[in-house]
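job 3f2a | input accepted
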Amino acid sequence: TMALNRVMTLLVRDKQLGPKIVPIIPDEARTFGMEGLFRQLGIYSASGQLYQPEDSDKVMWYKEDIKGQVLQEGINEAGAISDWIAAATAYATHNTTMIPFYIYYSKFGFQRVGDLAWAAGDMQAKGFLIGGTAGRTTLNGEGLQHQDGDSHLVANTIPNCVSY
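job 3f2a | predicted structure (164 res):
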């Protein structure tokens, strides 16, 4: 995820591409090391920041903003992938090209939202579904539930989803 964070940071800084990038993270932005996007882009909130964040004295504090670009739904994978589908089909529904990135725990991603991912394929959604912490060597301290060995098998059940 470190390489992804670097690429994402460069993409959002680009004058033409930056406004089209939609980072969508169900709940694990800090686990993926993506908290740098909080300050740079802000987390979208229709009401803005209504409270003093616990980490407001830190460099990478939790910044909510009406103009925020990061979508963080809490532990709500179905809501997050629904955001992704909306952004990924905006080219057809609103004549607006967006580049959504849905970043999730690899092990759980397609298990929890596979039907919605299939629906997105039917809608010809365009974007990136990125399984973070993939493989059998990450988050060992979290237990066997994170020892991902089957996410590609599940992803391959969707014919027009290219997984690598």
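job 3f2a | Helices lie at 2-13, 36-41, 77-88, 90-93, 106-122, 151-155.
job 3f2a | closed
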